[in-house]
Amino acid sequence: MVNNRAKNLHWFPGHMAKALREVEAKCQSVDIIVEICDARIPYSSRNPFLSQVAQNKKRLLILNKADMADASVTKAWLKYLNTSEQMAIATSLSSARDLKVIRHSIDLLSLDKRERDQKRGMKNRPVRALVIGIPNSGKSTLINRLAGRKKVLVANRPGATRSQQYIKVDQYIELIDTPGILPPNYDDSQVALNLALLKAIPMDILPLNDLCEYAIKILVTQYPDYLTSRYGETLNGLTSYNDVLLAISKIRGYLPLGADNFERAEKLLVVEFQNGILGTVSLERPSNDK
Ligand SMILES: Nc1nc2c(ncn2[C@@H]2O[C@H](COP(=O)(O)OP(=O)(O)O)[C@@H](O)[C@H]2O)c(=O)[nH]1
Ligand SMILES: [Mg+2]
Fold first, then answer.
1. Can you tell me whether residue 58 is helix, strand or coil?
2. Among 73, 96, 187, 195, whose Cα sits 20 to 30 Å from the Cα of 126?
3. For residues 226 and 218, is the Cβ–Cβ distance under 8 A?
4. Ligand 1: which of 93, 273, 274 to mutate, judged by most atoms within 8 Å of the beta carbon?
5. DSSP secondary structure string for all residues of 104-118
6. Strand 86-90, strand 127-133: pairing
7. Which secondary-structure segment (H or E) carries 194?
8. Atom of ligand 1 nearest to the CA of 66
């Protein structure tokens, strides 16, 4: 019953519309879009309105933080998300190899553009990319890792409302300097739970026990070994909210707080889940209704 208890789940349509207008304006001045989402929740961490504001642009979809996701599920997502309009790859931004894959993918996506340029006699015009995604998906990390020490301002073009600046990655690629921030779409309470459990939105937006209940449900149904390997064999076979939290409270010495006060154990479990301490997880799987 998250809907009734959710505290701050009001995303005003006006804010959403304004953010999307800003992204739309940025899209005008680039050749391709690099959209970045969370590999553990490729559905919940994408804004469904992006396709409306970024039409007719080639798109690279990056399933980031793949190091924290269930590898077999990520593989299934890639198969599902790779389409003729969109190239999908999975990355971990601390990996040098994955950064190479990103560059290579941008190269592939800009083949048409380079051919067009050549026909028009314009040689070596770099491909311009807008990095876009919801907060905390890894936009800044990606830009910094790609640009590295060579972070140079290469253009200052007057736009409709303010000037647009580009960061030179290398001879071939330029990134727009401010990433397009897409608002998370947390009208849907399931999406909000996914976002909060993976730190894509602040966890205090939702009641702690809703988050914890959801985490326990995922763990006992999909990753039962994680509970025992993190908190001990006494959790083996426990599936109910109370049983799991009581066991964790005992093991961690959080009792006596009163037998039904599990707040410390709830916090511990949610924070450890969020930080990937329990193990790699995927909260969403590709299916026909996604
Ligand atoms: N585990 C992991 N963490 C990442 C990865 N990419 C980014 N992060 C972390 O995610 C957080 C948000 O990244 P940031 O670049 O600030 O996201 P932004 O809000 O989209 O600009 C930071 O703590 C990053 O270190 C990744 O591939 N794997
Ligand atoms: Mg950022």
1. strand
2. 96
3. no
4. 93
5. HHHHHHTHHHHHHHH
6. unpaired
7. helix 189-197
8. 27
From the alpha carbon of 98, which atom of ligand 1 is closest?
27
pTM (2 d.p.): 0.90
Residue nearest to atom 2 of ligand 1 (CA): 65
Within 200-240, where are the H helices?
A: 208-222, 224-231
| 130 to 35, 36, 75, 138, 274: CA distances (angstroms) | 8, 10, 25, 13, 28
Which residues form the pocket of ligand 1, taking CB atoms under 6 Å from any ligand atom? 64-65, 67-68, 92-93, 133, 135-141
* Amino acid sitting at position 16: M
Give me the torsion for CA of 165, 93, 271, 239, rounded to 10°. Answer: 130
Amino acid letter at 26?
A: K
Residue 266 tokens, joined: 């709830």
Per-residue pLDDT of the chain (290 residues; tens, 9 = 90+): 344 334 444 555 677 788 888 889 989 889 999 999 999 999 999 988 888 888 788 999 999 999 999 999 999 999 999 998 899 999 999 999 999 999 999 999 999 898 999 899 988 789 999 999 998 999 989 998 998 865 544 544 444 345 568 888 888 899 988 888 888 887 788 999 999 999 988 888 899 999 999 999 999 999 999 999 999 999 999 999 999 999 999 999 987 656 678 999 999 999 999 999 999 999 999 985 44
Conformation bin of residue 95: beta by default, left when phi > 0, alpha when psi is -120 to 50: beta
Structure tokens at 120: 């028009």
Separation of alpha carbons 39 and 75, rounded Å: 10
